[in-house]
Amino acid sequence: MKVTKRVLFCVVLLGGVTAWSQDFYRAEVTADYSYARFYPVAQGTQSLSLNGGGGAAVVYFNDYFGIKMDLQGYGSNTIT
Predict the structure, then answer these.
(1) What gap in Å lies between CA 43 and CA 8, rounded to an integer?
(2) What local confidence, expressed as pLDDT, does residue 4 receive?
(3) 21-72 pLDDT, tens per residue?
(4) I want to staple 52 with a disulfide (CB 3.0 to 4.6 A). Which of 16, 56, 62, 74 is the partner?
(5) Residue 56 Cα distances to 36, 52, 65, angstroms
(6) So what's the pLDDT on residue 67?
(7) pLDDT at residue 76 above 80?
(8) CA of 54: how far to CAs of 10, 24, 32, 36, 77, in Å?
(9) Lateral strand order in the sheet of 48-60
(10) Domain map of the chain by residue range?
(11) Residue 55, Cβ neighbours under 10 Å: how many?
């Protein structure tokens, strides 16, 4: 009898966690930083250190469909 109650409790608990994980977010916003190093093998050209970053925004319409906007940008020193 005790085993049956414990098994039933675990099944109900796992069912609740599964139902809770089915919810979806309406929107999501992220930010990031990136570093890229350009080192050409040709002689006479300089290498570049590119620092950049960006972000993304996602709007979800339902569980399966959403629109994402992803923006990235890099900057470096001027080469003469």
Answers:
(1) 73
(2) 86
(3) 556 678 899 999 988 887 777 777 777 788 889 999 999 988 788 999 999 8
(4) 74
(5) 19, 14, 16
(6) 95
(7) no
(8) 44, 24, 6, 14, 19
(9) 27-38, 48-60, 66-75
(10) 24-75
(11) 13
CA distance 65 to 45: 46
Gap between the Cα atoms of 68 and 28, Å rounded = 9
Residue 78 has pLDDT above 70, yes or no: no
Pick from 57, 56, 50, 59: which is nearest to 78 by CA? 50
* Residue with the larger pLDDT of the pair 42 and 8: 8
Enter the tokens of residue 5.
């109650």
Structure tokens at 41: 């093998």
Which two structure tokens, joined as six digits, stand for 61? 């319409």
